[in-house]
Please model this.
Amino acid sequence: MAKDYKADLGEYLLTDWIASEKDLDKAIPDASLAGVSDSLEVAEDLVVEAVQIELSADHLRLPDLAVELVSPAGTRSVLMTPFNGLVYQGVMDPNDPDDLVKGYDKTPMLSNAFYGENTKGVWTIKLIDVNSGEYQFLKYDKGYISIPNESNGMLKGWSIRFHGHKAKAAS
Model:
């Protein structure tokens, strides 16, 4: 049976996007658990219901990337797991397997892992390339398709916004 909540969370708020520097151009090391990170300072004091990001990153093999967001409280949310089911998104033209999508372009992602936390503080995004080996997948009408991965990716930029409500003042 579902729990019956009586507390009023207050007015729902959706913040404006807070963007990183334009053209971060931070290298995502190939097959390195060190990955690359970037942080944004958030001054607004809200209680989180959901956190949304937009990610721009160049990478020839998106299934190699893990995308993680870390809150000021230290909570970690994996927004995109490596080796996910998005295998064919790396090829733009289905008739030309060499026409590769170069990565994420303001791709939206959302997490509810930070529910109830405060927005104020430093939020950090981390991208990790987990594979340098062979990678191929089977496309029903083309056979096996291999996507090369000989170079570093690039974190180009990211933005964050919050779904939530005002923090209640201490009484």
Observations:
- The first strand starts at residue 13 and ends at 14.
